[in-house]
Amino acid sequence: MPPPADGLDPADWAEFSALAHRMLDDMIGYLRDARDRPVWQPMPAELRAELRTPLPHAGEGAAAAYADFTRLVVPYATGNTHPGFMGWVHGGGTAVGMMAELLAGALNANLGGRDHAPIEVERQVLRWAAEMLGFPLDASGLLVTGTSIANMIGVLVARTHALGPAVRRTGLQGAPLVAYAAGSVHGCIPRAMEMCGLGLDALHMVPTDAEGRMALPALAAAIAADRAEGRAPFLVVGTAGTVDIGAIDDLAAIAAIARREGIWFHADGAFGALAMLAPALRGKLAGIEQADSVAFDFHKWAQVPYDAGCILVRHAGAQAATFASEAAYLRRETRGLAAGTLWPCDLGPDLSRGFRALKVWLTLKAYGADRIGAVVQESCDLANRLAARVEAEPELERLAPVPLNIVCFRYRAPGLDGAALDELNREIVADLHEMGLAAPSTTVLGGRLAIRAALVNHRITDADTNAMLDGVLARGRARTGRNAPAGGA
């Protein structure tokens, strides 16, 4: 029987299969040949204009749409699959993860609830995450888009823990809740406070020490001062891997303070939590296993394709108390597809949820935790070797410690300082981007603009970091009219 006139399945499955195999082969080649193309290149204005055309009312067919994808999108992607991508903290993805996306797309499962195998896969991933972080295996959890949402869930669970489930009906009612985080905390924590209705003023920023970690005496003093003024401390956020330099707060000490004060301890481990998979690095995160909740991403150091964030909550009932609700259309039955008690939609804001767990599950099964831990360790070793070369180059200056995998430095030139030196380094980075040679990012440390190399992609080697540094030196000299020193790069 032919498909209905308005059906969306292929009219010719064999023809579609041939196209699909070509798509797959093209994308395997895209990963395999990453070094043969620029890290990044700007999209020409005339091509950008093609992505601003009106809604198509008549389809052009899958083959023509794919041709547009290869012409308009593929050459101008972010570039984080390339080993020259060292900006921000982006994972490089894997071929296994790419295939997992295809498999998940074919199943098209909604993981909001009901009784089916994809939800069991997510539950197994969450148990593995708990085991990795030293959490109880029956801890609650959820896979989400990323640590930004995971952190917001952590804030909401802490709020409900402090005020009780009635807060969901009555709101804050003027409760003077206050939270604490280091001044180096990721910007998604202040945003979470805003979006949760607590307000930015309720987040008290704690100074950091010379290593970029939360100053614990200042935290204790802030809590005492707030209590004395009638405010109610309810949350302290510790960071495992700050976004600027990779600093790790003293999580064990924060846990002790939180226990003593009776407040919720949430750890933002966006990328640093995965250091738990590397035996030589695990000690740096001592105390993360004592947190009440932890947020982190599989799409960074674990190299799972975007997006794959995770929230774990030690006390299984606390997450459900924050989100679970009854609705007739979500009625739970004792048998059939609607069976089951605690559905994922009881643990977070989303009812419609994709099968992102599959790419995490297949990645961990295919490579194993030890191999991913070795990738984590190697990226930190690469960073230490990069930092050593920065220190050996008279024209370069390291601007921060290197506790994990991020190296912050700058090019310096005689006669330039302040804003002029900042502008020079900003232009050097833009030059590297536009040349397609490398893609570090920038940040500001102590009022000085720094070139920031975050070594996350598993494809990066010493050759890539050396090429990036050689590019920095060459562009710095070109822009200042300096010559390379004898025998220099």
What does this structure look like?
By secondary structure, the protein is α/β, with parallel strands linked by helices. It folds into 3 domains: 13-38 and 41-77; 109-367, Type I PLP-dependent aspartate aminotransferase-like (Major domain) (Aspartate Aminotransferase, domain 2); 372-480, Aspartate Aminotransferase, domain 1. It is 42% helix and 12% strand. Strands 1-7-6-5-4-2-3 form a 7-stranded mixed beta sheet, with helices on both faces. The chain has a 4-stranded antiparallel beta sheet with strand order 8-9-11-10. Strand 4 (232-239), helix 10 and strand 5 (264-268) form a beta-alpha-beta unit. Helix 4 (95-107) runs antiparallel to helix 13 and helix 14 (369-392) runs parallel beside helix 16. The protein is globular and about 75 Å long. The relative contact order is 0.14. The mean pLDDT is 95.
